[in-house]
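Q: What does the assembled structure look like for these inputs?
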Amino acid sequence: MAVIPGDGIGQEVIPQAVRVIQASGANVELTGFDWGADRYLRDGVTVPADGFAMLGRDYDAILVGAFGDPRVKTNIHAKEILLGMRFKMDLYANVRPIRLLDAALCPLKGIEPKDVDFVVLRENTEGVYTDAGGVFKQGTADEIAIQEDINTRKGVERIIRYAFEYCEKHRKADGSPRNKLLMCDKSNAMTHAGGLWQRVFKEVSGEYLKITAQHMYVDALCMQMVRDPRQFDVIVTNNMFGDIITDLAAGLQGGLGMAASGNIHPGRTSMFEPVHGSAPPIAGKNIANPFGAILTAAMMLAHLGMTAEAAKIEAAVLEAVRQKKTTQDIGGKLGTKEAGEWIEERVSKSGAN
Ligand code: ATP
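A:
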């Protein structure tokens, strides 16, 4: 397994995830890589030659922290490493589980943990993130900027199909089936791209009759997410809407410090990362919440079939939240390292498999 902590708080939270993986007894070999701002500033390398091919060939999975450093104004390294992995390794499904572990973490009134347990599946290789477009007559009064939203039949179909398959294979925390798939778009305004998503969703839903197919415009979905998150089960959407709604959704589960994600291409080396970025304002202070990274590690182990180890880690995080053995952002008094050590100890005590 490759481990790339990256920049900022990535360098603080990933070591905690690593100690927890080791405590879980998971049979994995971890190899660290120094890709990130420091390396880029030192030798100008963002991704070493053949880097992505090496990751795909030699590793089962990749655990990543975050990229972004104020010293690299262009953020070129973040783009080349993170978007490079998603695009060049074709990790087309960004899986972001949204689960509330304790009522105290949710800013909404009267919401219980069982009320927030849904998953957002974000298309990860197309949309506006392809950087297609350009600027014409830059710096003049006649300047024109065009940002293209790329949606291919193949790209839309495979993420929608992945979403239906995901529903069939996964269950909620309470054991009930995931049997509702909601496609979110803005097809009333973005008619061309939205039209393609609508047609493909309708067509593919015909093959999965046990799953209820639903639709919501992204603006309505944002309102519904804060009015009544109970109604959501699995949501599939494009790259940009997925980016935006998962920050909102992270707010329901205790903030960015709690959110985990996987970047997946079934059957290939996939990459797992906490949803948060490098958070420069809090970096180096031992205050970043490591639970998003630790839950990400659990997600990675589950993806690789180590479900017992993953369950032990999740149970320990749940207990830490209940006992307030957490960082300050979610109400505790521990530092990043101390919160990681608490989970490590709890996981090692939870016994061998
Ligand atoms: P990116 O563009 O890379 O997604 P961003 O600038 O949108 O990053 P983050 O770097 O994720 O955002 O962080 C934004 C703010 O959220 C941070 O400054 C911090 O206050 C808070 N935050 C993010 N992650 C954590 C964490 N793990 N623990 C505590 N607070 C966090």
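The radius of gyration is 20 Å.
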